[in-house]
Amino acid sequence: MTKHSTLHDRALAFRSLHVPGTPLVLPNAWDAVTARLVEDAGAAAVATTSAGLVWALGAADGDRLERGAALAAVARVTAAVGVPVSADIEGGYAADPAGVADTVRAVLAVGAVGVNIEDARYDDGGLPLRPVAEQAERLAAAREAADAEGVPLFVNARIDTFLRGAGGVDLTLERAAAYRAAGADGIFVPGAVDPGTVKELVAGVDGPLNVMAGPGAPPVAELAALGVARVSVGSGIAQAAHALVRRAARELLEEGTYASLTGGLDYGELNALAARGR
């Protein structure tokens, strides 16, 4: 089997996991070891968190990382696991649609079969979101690039209306329709976890809906009953891990004790996981 056919089959397998009512559950990872931990826990796929990934590289989230560094990190994740990988590529690591297409080709080259592309803006333009037509062009470029490579890449269009306080259900559904028409496969609406809101989004989105869960959000079973097709946690696990680092460091420096280290993974187990070849 060629590398291309393997990538194609993996993309189809990943696509098939998005089932409304039986959602794909993704504990987001940010490097090779966390990806292996997620796979070892039984996940059917691995999704990266852009925030966790860039923090591990000493950078800030929000379209600040250079494409090459981001994709090199994704490559380490895809090489570490046997399950399909979806890459969070922020806004596409590019200024224009042609650049987004280049990023997608690079994503495929390192073995990922899904992408998240967000419509948030982080420049000084004053607007929290890209104009709909502009974002649709970027998504269309991603779709066309993947199709030209013969890989059914799952393009997850992230809509940041709720996360950025830029609109509610109606505006979100307008954007979702435009993004689906441009070639997006799924719609991701972080910040929307209220059951009533999720129910409206499921009913109004023509395609699988992804929500971002965390403390205070309904459990996966409830989101499944609402018709959600994908549940992820974004940077939540990375944030919890970094909170432990700070808590343990402060305890050690201020109290001279080690209670925060209780419950850590066994050294041999973690080392063997890190050393496992693919």
Molecular structure report:
The protein is α/β, with parallel strands linked by helices. The protein is 47% helix and 10% strand. The chain contains 11 helices and 8 strands. The chain has helices at 3-16, 32-40, 50-56, 67-80, 97-109, 132-148, 169-181, 195-204, 220-225, 236-255, 267-275; strands spanning 24-26, 46-47, 85-88, 114-118, 154-158, 186-188, 209-212, 230-232. It has an 8-stranded parallel beta sheet with strand order 1-8-7-6-5-4-3-2. The longest helix is centred in the last third of the chain and has 20 residues, at 236-255. It starts with a helix and ends with a helix. The model has no long low-confidence stretch (mean pLDDT 96).
As residue ranges, the low-confidence spans are: none
Beta-sheet strand percentage? 5-15%
What is the CATH top level name? Alpha Beta
The spatial strand order of the largest sheet comes to 1-8-7-6-5-4-3-2
Helical amount among residues, as a percent range?
40-55%
What fold name goes in the CATH topology slot? TIM Barrel
Mean pLDDT: 96
Termini separation (Å)?
16 Å
Largest sheet: 8 strands, parallel
Report the total helices: 11
Give the SSE map.
Blueprint: H1 3-16, E1 24-26, H2 32-40, E2 46-47, H3 50-56, H4 67-80, E3 85-88, H5 97-109, E4 114-118, H6 132-148, E5 154-158, H7 169-181, E6 186-188, H8 195-204, E7 209-212, H9 220-225, E8 230-232, H10 236-255, H11 267-275
Parallel strand pairs: 1-8, 2-3, 3-4, 4-5, 5-6, 6-7, 7-8
Helix pairs in contact: 2-4, 5-6, 6-7
